[in-house]
Amino acid sequence: MTVPIRNHDIAELKRLDLAHHLPAQTDYKLQHDLGGSRIITRADGVYIHDGEGHQILDGMAGLWCVNVGYGRQELAQAAYEQMLELPYYNTFFKTASPPPIRLAAKIAEKMGGHLTHVFFNSSGSEANDTVFRLARHYWKTKGQPQRTAFISRWNAYHGSTVAGVSLGGMKHMHVQGDLPIPGVHHVMQPYSFNEGFDEDPAAFCARAVKEIEDKILEVGPETVAAFIGEPVQGAGGVIIPPDGYWPAVEAVCRKYGILLVCDEVICGFGRLGQWFGHQHYGIKPDMIAMAKGLSSGYLPISAVGVADFIVAELKEKGGDFIHGFTYSGHPTACAVALKNIE
Fold first, then answer.
1. pLDDT digits (tens, 9 = 90+) for 101-118
2. pTM: predicted TM-score of the whole model, two decimal places
3. Residue 112's CB: how many other CB atoms inside 10 A?
4. H or E element: which one contains 289?
5. For the structural domain made of 75-341, what CATH number should be given?
């Protein structure tokens, strides 16, 4: 599809950028000293174009999200058609619309097996917030309200909300906001180059897994709700765990009855060769967070995949899960995500 190229007054945009716009993850003094942000004006395929006339290979796919590339007419068409029919409605109080219902079924099909239910949000950060809330709600419903602690890994990234930054293990993010919040604990990352030095890979793997078990015992197994990790740590440096790491982590979680959560926000939708990263490692998490590649970044959407035994407990005991967002199950975002998966 040929898209008309609009002429932008870049000088005026830079002026407005400095006067009014606060970009994310930015040193605002440096932004001012440099005369404003780099302004991206259009994109096609694997390339983005800036206001200075440069064509740039987008090796990061935006922020790890434009899985199918830029300029996909069918995704724009899906959004257009859904906007005409039902642009928005919420999913509060036992309400739904066709797109989130169909998308939930499609995601359940791709997750396979035991992950049968889906809760929608708008970002990966919100998805991990939902994981945080849902895990605690599950254990309280099950009669074990003391299970509130989470174990994560140093240098992990799980979002920018208070819960997301706390679950993440990036110390420079903890500094802003007195984080992590109580009840979140961190262990070593499975990064053999940095942590293992000349150690035998099998020995390093065993040590990394033992640190998780030691932390569980230190905190108290009866107080731990879940362990969370990215199949491959993304923002931390594309850290690939040693062979055998994830099956061993899963075994530790099962030993102590702890929920296993995989943050698939980056690894999901084909990045490791299968629909989800945990499938590559042959494990069965109890919840997974997903976003980014779900819609290839064309519209904001995220989701949490939930194991059937968790949902069965909530259905048996009843009571509201008092959680959700204005844009949870946004019809247009869901329609685009469905077409993207196709």
1. 999 999 999 998 899 999
2. 0.93
3. 13
4. strand 287-290
5. 3.40.640.10
